[in-house]
Write a structure and sequence with these properties.
The protein is an all-alpha fold. It has helices at residues 2-29, 34-82, 88-99, 114-149, 154-167, 171-182, 206-244, 247-254, 259-279, 291-296, 302-311, 315-343, 349-353. The radius of gyration is 27 Å and the shape is globular.
């Protein structure tokens, strides 16, 4: 098993190399980079300043002279400032060398180290990611087991209708609906709809802070969980149904074992194997985020950061997010493999590594 672990960890390096190389080349060759955006800001600023000082005709001539001025030494200075005065592969080599010291460069937009920008946005994503991850498994696993045990009965049919209605509802539409119903839109003003804490959060007691945070969490958390909740429940139910039909379960029943013992001791452990694939991606909750949900509820998290970085062509932030997310995803796959062994001892990684 140790040999298998070492091989998988070593395999992360070339995989990350391939991901970053392809992404870096595509991003840097895409039109409308940070230099072009900076030039537009300079030209717009020159036109705006001249227009306010001397009127329309003077503004037009200023725009032309501004463009001529920008196309010379200013462009070369900007290329050198942003590091675009070298070929793409050379820039990638420099970036890769800096990456070895966890230096992702400086954000073009925020004008500070990329790692600081990501760490500042991460708390929101961590909170929603952790809570939604644990709640999903704590609710969906027993719910899926109960649906499998009561397959075809009213509970199974009724819960399936609710689950699939929830699954077919887009999260952003649900967010708008919840705001209209419970966020003071037209009916009830029960929940806040902006941020994760109140403005006077610091003046609350310890328990008051917990209550305030939970109060802000409820509506966006429902929207975060709505999609994965149904998928995980149905996966657990189908896996449990498959195990219940197997010979070893019928044998256990024929021996007179109680139904609860047959289900929870014999069948459940094997039924959890497909569900365990998601447990390994626990690390990815640090980058959980949804652009639409964060925009609607005023949450400054990773989803909004990634979207704004793409719009503003903030290459260093985009690459920083890509590297960290890819690394956590690859590491999560390894964790999933070892969870397989913990749930099903029949799996032998020693044979795989030979």
């Amino acid at each position: 098993m140790l040999v298998y672990l070492v091989r998988r960890l070593i395999a992360i390096v070339p995989t990350l190399f391939g991901i970053t190389l392809v992404a870096f080349v595509i991003i840097n060759l895409a039109p409308g980079g940070p230099i072009e955006q900076k030039l537009q800001q300079i030209r717009f600023g020159a036109q705006h300043a001249q227009g306010g000082a001397g009127g329309g005709a003077t503004s037009g001539s200023s725009a032309r002279s501004g463009s001529q001025e920008v196309t010379g030494e200013v462009i070369e200075a900007l290329k050198k400032q942003y590091g675009f005065d070298k070929p793409v592969l050379v820039r990638y080599g420099i970036w890769l060398k800096n990456l070895s010291t966890l230096d992702f460069g400086k954000s073009f937009t925020h004008e500070e180290p990329v790692l600081d920008v990501i760490l500042r946005k991460m708390p929101v994503s961590i909170q929603f990611g952790l809570v939604s991850f644990f709640l999903s498994y704590l609710v969906c696993v027993p719910l899926g087991v109960m649906k499998a045990v009561k397959h075809g009965q009213r509970f199974d049919t009724g819960s399936s209708m609710v689950l699939f209605m929830a699954y077919s509802t887009p999260s952003f539409m649900l967010a708008i609906l919840l705001i209209v119903l419970f966020g003071g839109g037209s009916f009830f003003d029960w929940f806040p709809i902006n941020g994760i804490v109140s403005d006077d959060y610091d003046s609350f007691t310890f328990f008051g802070k917990i209550i305030d945070r939970v109060h802000h969490f409820i509506l966006p958390l429902i929207c975060y969980m709505i999609g994965s909740f149904t998928t995980l429940t149905v996966l657990m139910k189908n896996s449990m149904l498959e195990e219940i039909k197997k010979d070893y379960v019928r044998t256990a029943r024929s021996k007179g074992l109680p139904e609860n013992r047959v289900v929870f001791k014999h069948a459940l452990r094997n039924a959890l194997i497909p569900v365990a694939t998601g447990l390994g991606h626990f690390l990815s909750v640090f980058f959980a985020g949804s652009l639409l949900i964060e925009t609607i509820f005023g949450l400054d998290g990773m989803g909004l950061l990634g979207y704004n970085s793409i719009l503003q062509r903030d290459y260093n932030v985009i690459m920083g997010l890509l590297v960290i997310e890819s690394f956590l995803y690859l590491l999560g796959n390894i964790v999933s493999d070892f969870l397989y062994v913990a749930i099903d001892p029949r799996i032998d990684f020693g044979a795989v590594s030979k």
